[in-house]
Amino acid sequence: MTKSVVILGAGAWGSALATLAKINGHKVHIWSRRDSQTLAEVLKDVDVILSAVSMKGVRNVVSQLQCLPLSPEIIFVTATKGLDPQTTCTPSQIWQEAFPNHPVVVLSGPNLSQEIQQELPAATVVASNVVSAAEVVQLVFSSNRFRVYTNADPLGVELGGTLKNVMAIAAGVCDGLQLGTNAKAALLTRGLTEMVRIGVHWGAKQETFYGLSGLGDLLATGNSPLSRNYQVGYQLACGKTLTEILTHLQGTAEGINTTKVLMLRSKQQNISMPITEQVYRLLQAEVTPRQALLELMLRDIKPEYND
Ligand SMILES: NC(=O)C1=CN([C@@H]2O[C@H](COP(=O)(O)OP(=O)(O)OC[C@H]3O[C@@H](n4cnc5c(N)ncnc54)[C@H](OP(=O)(O)O)[C@@H]3O)[C@@H](O)[C@H]2O)C=CC1
Ligand SMILES: O=C(CO)COP(=O)(O)O
């Protein structure tokens, strides 16, 4: 059945998702804060509201929507991969708190938007506590070039896509320093261990991190120059400063803010996150890429798994 979909955020990801819904014949409107139409106008008779704004815009957009009369039938979908610096909440937690009577669905996976715009095949996950809502969103986006799986662990799916951005920065450093394939495999594997450790502590399911939104997205962004987070790490390793990199970077690298939030929360909760800590220190210019590598290699020797 044809759905009316409004996509909030006309950036790289919002535009790619709009293309995917349009090819399935849905009525799609992309709204951005520069739109000539107001949110109230574009949200008339809407079925699905998908937010693809970057993390820094989420609270702003949520508050604007809270002022509008919205039917409880409307499904919210969040495709943002970040953590709120003030509260450390995930975007879906912010949406759900603001709209407790609406179903909220997380959409996340290995989805480099440029490849999707080139019509290359990809897969993703839509996760919600309300299975029927996830199934509606699955139908809106599924096609012969975009395979959509449902999942019942929205927190795990969301954290997979968010936490891997920190590891994508580290992977860019690894490649920028030309450390080789063994080092890259070690980094991504131990990076995944770190993601699982904090994610499970926060209430996500371990197995979710081994799916598309965790391992899948870690492999995509940790191995692709198309990833902005990877680019940040790569260029730091090539000697550029963060300010220089951000001046020329197209779009948002959420991993920079996520690293800060993650450091704060992991320290408060006493969770060991050695790779995240070195990425944090590198972004703060407290260590060079080579020093960060050495710090990781010279940590106390230990069993691979502690339990
Ligand atoms: N690009 C990709 O491949 C993918 C990205 N993502 C995630 O999607 C999110 C968006 O990424 P992407 O589209 O690439 O980023 P872009 O930088 O291309 O776009 C960001 C969007 O957010 C909007 N925005 C930023 N701040 C505000 C605000 N205060 N109020 C309203 N709108 C705001 C921007 O509006 P304006 O243009 O007016 O500044 C723009 O539409 C990120 O969390 C990213 O991690 C997820 C999967 C794939
Ligand atoms: O999350 C993404 C692909 O799944 C996009 O990665 P970047 O934000 O690093 O470009």
TrEMBL record:
NAD(+) binds at residues 9-14, 228. Belongs to the NAD-dependent glycerol-3-phosphate dehydrogenase family. It is an enzyme of class 1 (oxidoreductase). It holds the Pfam family NAD_Gly3P_dh_N. Its EC number is 1.1.1.94. The keyword Lipid metabolism applies. It comes from Fischerella muscicola CCMEE 5323. The gene is gpsA. GO terms for molecular function: glycerol-3-phosphate dehydrogenase (NAD+) activity; glycerol-3-phosphate dehydrogenase (NADP+) activity; NAD binding. Catalyzes the reduction of the glycolytic intermediate dihydroxyacetone phosphate (DHAP) to sn-glycerol 3-phosphate (G3P), the key precursor for phospholipid synthesis. It catalyses: sn-glycerol 3-phosphate + NAD(+) = dihydroxyacetone phosphate + NADH + H(+); sn-glycerol 3-phosphate + NADP(+) = dihydroxyacetone phosphate + NADPH + H(+). This is Glycerol-3-phosphate dehydrogenase [NAD(P)+]. GO terms for cellular component: cytosol. Signal peptide: none annotated. Keywords: Cytoplasm, Lipid biosynthesis, Lipid metabolism, NAD, NADP, Nucleotide-binding, Oxidoreductase, Phospholipid biosynthesis, Phospholipid metabolism. It comes from the Bacteria. InterPro entries: 6-PGluconate_DH-like_C_sf, 6PGD_dom2, G3P_DH_NAD-dep, G3P_DH_NAD-dep_C, G3P_DH_NAD-dep_N, NAD(P)-bd_dom_sf. Residues 37-130 form the Glycerol-3-phosphate dehydrogenase NAD-dependent N-terminal domain. Sn-glycerol 3-phosphate binds at residues 81, 109, 164, 217, 227-229. Its main location: cytoplasm. NADPH binds at residues 13, 33-34, 81, 113, 228, 254. Pathway: Membrane lipid metabolism; glycerophospholipid metabolism.
